[in-house]
Give the backbone structure.
Amino acid sequence: MDKVLDNFFVFEGLDGSGKSTQLHLLGDKLRSRGFNVETTFEPTDNAIGRVVRQVLRREIVTTPQALALLYSADRHDHLYNSDYGIEKKTKEGTIVLSDRYFYSSFAYQTVQLDFDYVKAINNYPHPRCVIYLDASVSLCMERINSRGDVKELFEKEEYLKCVKENFEKAFRALPEGVKLIRIPAIMNEIEASELVFNEIEGYINL
Ligand code: TYD
């Protein structure tokens, strides 16, 4: 049986899909209803996550396999660290919202590596719901280009096309206890956030 962590909700989507905006809108809405909420993200800003970001900025060059292992190590710490781990927080009654989780590894790392390998190194509990910001590759590329920053490792049209297909494969394999909430990224931000809130409300279990 796949393990599911109660009160853990994950936002997924391509770079530039608007998932961070939706995550913060949901966090604000839940807090205004009196819930204790923490927002977080992967790669994290803890020690291992900082190494991952150096790889993304091309300051460190490594292999796709080593990068997949770094994402996984960062995730293990994110989940189980005795100070700030997600598992501990959710068990204490906090709702945790994460910007990305292992579905991103299933989508991005499997462009270069075997799905079974990436799955094997990500043997972690599922969240209760996955909120997927479903955006076209061209919309995401437009947003990435308009930021004007130096492009990170995976911010390329051809790569993101494969990533989008891989997200679909990963979601087809979701276990029964995990709810997928698909949000069209072209939707008005406020309407989208109401939709997300209405969908997840029934899955809060404090
Ligand atoms: P993120 O900071 O979420 O990028 P953005 O804000 O542009 O959406 O993630 C950084 C990059 O890391 C992004 O290209 C997706 C990639 N990534 C993976 O390849 N595997 C993973 O497991 C995770 C969590 C992220």
